[in-house]
Write a structure and sequence with these properties.
Blueprint (H helix, E strand, L loop, with lengths): L5 H4 L18 E6 L15 H14 L8 E6 L10 E5 L3 E4 L3 H13 L16
Parallel strand pairs: 1-2
Antiparallel strand pairs: 1-3, 3-4
The site of FE2/S2 (inorganic) cluster (FES) has 11 residues, from loops.
Length: 130
């Protein structure tokens, strides 16, 4: 049979994939809760979250990891895991960390953000929410 329209002769386009390949603008994205509460309730800002955020940003930049295709460090409001605070979460793995000091931040940068290895000792206990 002869096609009546040019598009009839075109090869069939492949069916869309059930889960089309995604490309992520950043390889990893870390969010630091910087929430400050004035009512006396626990909040990450009371545990040096701003300093940790700035430390992470500077370490990522110093390591040459910052930018598209690599790592992005962002501020966040309350992530609703205040009881585990101060917290930061890394995507796409959705790994939650509770850090204490600059050494912890440096380890997250070197191990997870640079090399993809989760820092088990800093994982936020799964049961800790708000
Ligand atoms: S104040 Fe940081 S998670 Fe809620």
């Amino acid at each position: 049979m002869t096609p009546s329209h040019p598009q009839d002769a075109a090869p069939a386009s492949p069916a869309p994939a059930a889960h089309p390949a995604k490309s992520s603008y950043y390889e990893r994205h870390i969010f630091f809760c910087l929430n400050q509460r004035s009512n006396g309730e626990a909040c990450c800002a009371d545990h040096h979250a701003q300093e940790a955020f700035e430390r992470c940003k500077s370490q990522v930049k110093a390591a040459g990891l910052a930018g598209p295709g690599q790592v992005r460090v962002n501020k966040a409001g309350c992530l609703d895991r205040c009881a585990g605070g101060p917290v930061a979460v890394v995507y796409p793995e959705a790994v939650w960390y509770t850090y204490i000091d600059a050494h912890d931040i440096d380890e997250i940068v070197e191990s997870h953000l640079k090399n993809g290895q989760v820092v088990e000792r800093l994982l936020t206990p799964a049961h800790l929410g708000r």
